[in-house]
Amino acid sequence: MSRIGRMPIDIPAGVKIEMDNGTIQVSAGAKVLSMIVHPDMKVEVQDNQIVVTRPSDSKNHRALHGLTRSLVSNMVTGVSQGFEKALDINGVGCRAQKQGNKLVLNLGYSHPIEMEDPEGINIEVPAPNRIIVKGADKQLVGEIAAKIRAFRLPDPYKGKGIKYSYEVLKLKPGKTGSK
Predict the structure, then answer these.
(1) pLDDT value at position 4?
(2) Which residue, 40, 115, 127, 162, has most beta carbons within 10 Å?
(3) Where do the structural domains in the chain lie, given as residue ranges?
(4) Which pLDDT tens digit goes with each residue over 113-151?
(5) Top-level class of domain 9-80
(6) Which helix (H) or strand (E) holds 27?
């Protein structure tokens, strides 16, 4: 049995679960996430817990079991607590600022890069060299953070660019010269 798939998901207070026609909808306050569950997987609410079961022990069903449980768990965590990713900007003259619902990045290019906040995502700039992406959908938060990071990937020699706050850059040595 799947070690991840067999664990029940606790439903926090204030989180509402609705299931109909193979779709599960998780909501808490104004945050609402929904997902279409694979027809072979069975998702049930029992004693304030969500339980995911599979019909057989085939390789495909075992893979779907853990996947479905993880996706539903991320939905419950997203609407109750939310997800966030922090990015750091390194480099002289490189900075970020918020103008209304737009993120404006000056990254050393000839023009500033403007990006509007997608629906369901909140981008904060607590300092000119720090960006925080917050939202209920874990996949969308990671996707937007990766998109922002892709505007200026970290340089392996000087360390300039946008990196995740947990990311550790191992800088390469430069030229050594000839004798």
Answers:
(1) 87
(2) 162
(3) 9-80, 83-164
(4) 999 999 999 999 999 999 999 999 999 999 999 999 999
(5) alpha beta
(6) strand 23-28
3-class DSSP state of 41 = coil
The two tokens of residue 75 are 């939905």
Token output for 79: 């609407």
Q: Which of 154, 173, 166, 169 is nearest to 91 (CA)?
A: 154
Identical fold for domains 9-80 and 83-164, yes or no, is yes
Query: Measured between alpha carbons, how far is 86 from 159 in angstroms, rounded to an integer?
Result: 17
SS3 label, residue 72: helix
pTM of the model: 0.89
Tell me the C-alpha to C-alpha distance, in Å, between residue 122 and each of 64, 73, 83, 161: 31, 21, 11, 22
pLDDT, residue 121, reads 94
Write 162-169 long-range contacts (CB < 8 A, 24+). Answer: 162/87, 162/88, 162/89, 162/90, 162/107, 162/131, 163/87, 163/88, 163/90, 164/85, 164/86, 164/87, 164/88, 165/86, 165/87, 165/88, 165/130, 166/86
Architecture, CATH, for domain 83-164: Alpha-Beta Complex (3.90)
| Calpha distance 115→164 (Å, rounded) | 18
DSSP labels for 80-132?
A: HT-EEEEEEEESTT-EEEEETTEEEEE-SSSS-EEEEPPTTEEEEEEETTEEE
